[in-house]
Amino acid sequence: MVRPADADLIAELASTPLSGLSKSLGIDIEDWLPIASSPLPITLRVTPNRHDIDWTREMLESIGGKRIPWMVSSESWVMPFPKGGYPSQRAKKLVTILHETGRITRQEAVSMLPPLVLEPEDGDLVMDTCAAPGSKATQIAEAIPNGLVLANEPSSGRLNLLVSNRGRLGISNMMIMQHDGRHIGRMPEPGVDGVIVDAPCSGTGTTRKNRELWRSWTPKVGRSLFKLQCDISTRAAQLLRPGGRMVYSTCSLDPVENEAVVCEILARCPWLELVQIENKRLFPSLICHNGRDDWPILNENGEVVKWEGDIPKLVGLSEKMLNPQQRGKTPPDLSKTIRVHQHDNNTGGFFIALFEHVAQRTPQGIARSMILHRELNREAEILPIQKKDNHSTIPAPDEAIEEICSKWGLPREEFSWWQRGKRINLCSKLASERLYKPRVMNKRGDYWPGESFHPLRMIHVGQPTFTYNKGIWRPRQESLELLRNRISKSIIEIDEDTMIALLNGHAPLIEEFVTEITSGSFILRCGGHQMPAWVGARVSLMLDEKEREVMRMKLGLDVEVKDR
Fold first, then answer.
1. What is the pLDDT of residue 552?
2. Is residue 251 annotated as a catalytic residue, yes or no?
3. Which residue in 130, 201, 230, 251 is the catalytic one?
4. Which end of the chain, N or C, is surrounded by fewer C-beta atoms within 10 Å?
5. Burial (CB count within 10 angstroms: exposed 0-12, middle 13-18, buried 19+), residue 122
6. Considering the domain boundaries, does residue 1 fall inside one?
7. Is 30 left (phi over 0), alpha (psi -120 to 50) or beta?
8. DSSP 8-class letter at 508
9. 539 three-state secondary structure
10. In terms of residue numbers, what domain contains 472?
C-alpha cells in the first residue's frame, strides 16, 4: 500500500522546480505528488530455471508478494511494503537472503522495461553500454541463454557491483568490459545485434527513492547531461549491425534528456529509424504515455519561459534542446516513444525509445564504425595487441579442460573455456566465435589479428566456475546452479541426518564419514540438495552461511527467521 507523504510536505514540494517540470508536461500534480513523494514498493525478478524456483515463489507468497500483472514476459514480483518498511524480521531476512543467494534480483519495476522492449533473440550478441550495477544486463543474459551480453561499465567502483551481480546469479553468458561509453572499442564484423543505452541522467523519475532530488534538481542539471547522453548513444549506434535494434532509456521525466536526445540521435545517425514500441503486446496493462514534440523551456525555478523566437539565455541551454517547432524542424514521430509516470502504476518514472538500424541504409552489411573511411591502396598492416599478464583472460589450456571434464563428467563442447589466474571461467561459445577469434579492422584498413579481445578492454569473460586449489580444480559455490545438471562424476550420496549435521558446522574425520570417501573435492548430494565439500583430514562443506541458511530453511530448521 502506498503511504502518502505529509500534507505540509506535499504543499512544500509543490513549489519545487521538479513539480514545475511535471506541470509543464501536463501531469496532474494533485494525483502525482502524493505518489511521487512516497516510498517505492520493493520489486524483484525471480531467477529463471533455478532448480528450487517453486520454493522461492512459496517464500515470496508467504510474505505477501504478488506477480506484477503487466509484466508478462519476465517473472517479476511486487512486495506490499517499501525497502525501509518491512512488516517483520522474517520478511526482511527472506528478501535479503533470496537476493544474496541469487534466487531473486531486487530491481525497480520500470527498470525491467528496456530489455523487454529490445526483445533480443536467443543467440544474439547484445551490448549494455552503461551496465552497472547489472540488473538490466543480467536480465538480458537470462533471456538469451544461448546468446552473449557485453556489459560495459567505465567506473571501476561500479564495475565491482556488476561483477558481484554476475557472480551472485552464476551467469556464464556475460562478458564485462571497461570503456568510456563514448569511446567503446572496435569489435569484429558485423557488429552487435542489439544495444541498450540506459544513459546517465538527472533521475527525475526516481524521486521515490532519492528524496534529495526535490531539493537539488533544476533544469540546468538535465541540460548538463544532454551531450553525454547523445555521445554515448551515437557510439552505440555506430557499433550496431544493420537490422539490429537499440533501446535508449532514462529514469528521467525531463524532455531535454529524452525526446530532445532522440531527435539528436536521429540527426547524427541517419541509418537509424524510430520504431513503434508495442506496449499493448509487451506489457498490456501498463499505463504509459506517448512521447511529445512540444516540450517547453523552463527556467531554474521550473517555470515555463515564453517562446519569442530567440533562445533564452539560460545556463546550458542550446538550440538542440528546443522542441522541433521552436527549431523550425519537421519532428520525428516521437509518439512512438513511451513515458511512464510515477503515479500511474505505483512505480518510478521512466522514458524509453526504440531504434532500428535500417539495413538498406548501410548496404555494406556491417556496423557504421567498421566501414573504411577511404579505399586502402596499400597492403594492410598488422597492429600490435596488448601484452598478456597474470590478470589477462586467455583460452584455458587443453590439459586443464581435460582434467576438469574427466573428474566432473562435464561436457566440453557446450562452453568456451577461459583461464584468469587460478580460475577457469565458462562462457558462451559466442565469446570465442564472434569476439576472440576474428580479426578487427581499424578505420584505415589495418587490423589487429585474431586470437585476442583487443582493442576491447575485457575485464571478465564468463562465470568463474573452477578454482585451482592444492592441485585440484574444485567448483566454486556461485557456479553450483550452472553445474547442477551438467556434472556426472565426483558426486557422493549422503543421508539427511548427515546433511543436517554438516550444515550445522559438523566436520567429521574422513575415517568417520558416513560413506567411504577419498581426499579431494566432491559434490555431496541428498535428494535434490547438492553441496560442494573439501575432503582432507576432515569432510568440510564449502558453502557460505547464506546458502547454508537457505538449505536449513528448506528443511524446516529456519529458527533464525521466525517472527518473535
1. 94
2. yes
3. 251
4. C
5. exposed
6. no
7. alpha
8. -
9. strand
10. 149-183+373-476
- Dist CA 514 CA 535 (whole Å): 13
Give this prediction's pTM.
0.95
User: What amino acid occupies position 308?
Assistant: E
CATH of the domain at 544: 2.30.130
Asked whether residue 178 falls in the same domain as residue 297, the answer is: no
**What are phi and psi for residue 467, nearest 5 degrees?**
-120, 140
Whether residue 276 is contained in a domain is answered as: yes
Chosen domain end from 411, 445, 476? 476
Of 324, 340, 368, the position where a domain reaches its end is 368
Residue 472 grid cell: 585440484
SS (H, E, C) 271-322: CEEEECCCHHHHCCCCCCEECCCCCCEECCCCCEECCCCCCCCCCCCCHHHC
Are residue 199 and residue 323 in the same domain, yes or no? yes
For 169-195, write each residue's pLDDT tens digit: 999 999 999 999 999 999 999 999 999
> 336 and 312 share a domain?
yes
Question: Are 241 and 327 within one domain?
Answer: yes
Give the Cα separation of 429 and 194 in Å (integer). Answer: 18
| CB-count exposure of residue 456 (10 Å: 0-12, 13-18, 19+) | buried
Q: Give Cβ neighbours of residue 496 (< 8 Å, ≥ 6 apart).
A: 526, 527, 555
pLDDT at residue 5, rounded to an integer? 58
